[in-house]
Amino acid sequence: MLSHSQIFLYLCIGFISGIFLGSFFHSYYLIYFLIIISFSLISILWKRKHVLAGVFLILTFCLGYFCVNNRLDNVLNNEITEYFNSEVEIVGKVSRNPKDDLETKKAILKVEKVNDKELNSNILIFTNKDLNYGDKVSIKGKLEKPENYADFDYIMYLANQEITGIIKYPEIEVLSKNNFFIYDFKNKAEKLVLEKLSISKASILNATILGETDTMSSDLKQNLGFSGISHVVAISGQHIILLCAIMLSFLNYLKVGRKKAIVITFLFILFYIVLIDFPASALRAFIMMSFIMLAELLGRETDSIRSLIMAAVLILIFNPLALVYDLGFELSFLAVLGIIFFNNYFKEKLKFIKNQFLNDLIAVNFSAQVFVLPLLAYTFGFVSLSSFITNILVVPISTIMLIFGFLCVVIALILPSLSFFIFLPISLILGYILIITNTFSFMIIEINDFPLILLLIIYIALGFVAFKLRRNKFDFYF
Q: Which of 13, 33, 32, 27 is nearest to 69 (CA)?
């Protein structure tokens, strides 16, 4: 008889495997074939042990395969594709907070009508007009089909965000305005930071506390990657875990009851997730942490691996394309796996760092990189030789920047007369990070033609090591 945990594992493995294969093969005939096999197994091997496990595996595989192909059909082959390369008049609502790189705004429009015909789709518009989340607009312009770049699958990048077409600089008439207070706060905070700091410092702070990287130059992004600290300024699962830890510790210091502290922390992180516009990496960590905090509220033990898999499955149910076409989702999932398996190992190896908080902080960062580095090397074609040094130099100070920077921005918005004095220490911290970034950015090894088979071998080897260290679990109960 299968246990509940075994059934859960079979369901998840089947579903995720189906999504993975379905991301590359787009024929529904495979589903019909596998369903026939499933019912054949039931009729022939009904009394055999584990036959239901095999059936569960096949059926959930079919479900995952169907989900990803259905999403692709809905995005790439919906009715709006009939209007490609033609002038259209579209009525719709801005469905997400527009991105602004100081020259062009990019807004995702939820289409309601095309030339007075009701349609359900999403398009990306490039504009110089100020738009807000929830604004209802009427636009006129040429609807274009996205095109891939030489080394970048732009079509699937947009499909992952449910975007079918593009209109560049259309005529826009705002039919009704909407000021969603969270996004209004975010926009004001981002502009304030850009006003008070240099563009390099402002782009790092906005990326760290607000998840906005549009104003960051390509050179700065490259230098952060070369120096091995790009993960420090990117909103990730690690940020969410760290915020949870700090909030719970702070509330514990204030003598707030444990259950009340968990509820307050949950609401605070939920607000922050909305503020930074639901990035996949942070959302995944939030879902996982929610499972863990709920289990503690109910007085039940939970397993971090199971929570991580449940979080991944929930995200993939709503966006099955994320598994293959969302690098951020992949990196954040691998980062938390690294923390689960290797955190205690690094804490032991770094015990020469006597300060417990500093030891924990650096150990979390190192363990997060174990599973991430191979994929980064495969994707971007380089490995940073300085990451060990730069993480020790930057991670502790970046933690201060994450919390102190957010509080300073909030205070500066409330008391603008104090903004100069408030931003002075933040500017010094950011200056320090830039010095470290520029000093160590040359220490890289370029890797050309990284073979996929080598990447698979590396992950098999890491999986074997992780299995050996499985007893050293990362403790999520802060």
A: 27
What would the two tokens of residue 201 be? 């410092």
Residue 277: Cβ within 10 Å count: 19
**Closest alpha carbon to 219 in 234, 235, 230:** 230
> How many domains does the chain contain in total?
3
Q: Work out the widest C-alpha separation in the chain, in whole angstroms.
A: 78
Of 124, 117, 157, 130, the closest CA to residue 143 belongs to: 124
Q: Are 376 and 331 in contact (CB under 8 A)?
A: yes
40 and 152 belong to one structural domain = no
Q: Which residues, 6 or more positions from 54, have their beta carbon under 8 angstroms from its beta carbon?
A: 41
CA-based nearest residue to 195, from 205, 183, 184, 182: 205
Residues 68, 169, single domain; the answer is: no
Is the Cβ–Cβ distance between 311 and 291 less than 8 Å?
A: yes
Locus of tokens 């804490």: 347
Nearest to 239, CA basis, from 263, 262, 260, 269? 269
Task: State how far the Cα of 328 lies from the Cα of 333, in Å rounded to an integer.
Answer: 8
Residues 139 and 240 in one domain: no
Closest among 21, 9, 26, 14 to 63, alpha carbons compared: 14
Quick: pLDDT tens for 337-367.
887 788 888 888 888 877 776 777 778 778 8
137 and 113 co-located in one domain: yes
pLDDT in tens, 61-101: 888 888 998 898 889 888 899 999 999 999 999 988 787 76
Q: 109 near 95, Cβ under 8 Å?
A: yes
CA dist list (Å): 240 to 85, 235, 245, 282, 328: 43, 8, 9, 6, 14
One domain for residues 87 and 60: no
Please state the pTM of the whole predicted model: 0.77
CB 285 within 8 A of CB 240: yes
Q: What is the dihedral of CA 78, 178, 181, 280, to 10 degrees?
A: 10
Region of poorest pLDDT, from 230-234, 425-429, 455-459: 230-234
The Cα 201–Cα 183 span in angstroms is: 22
Q: How many CA atoms lie within 13 A of 106 on its CB side?
A: 12
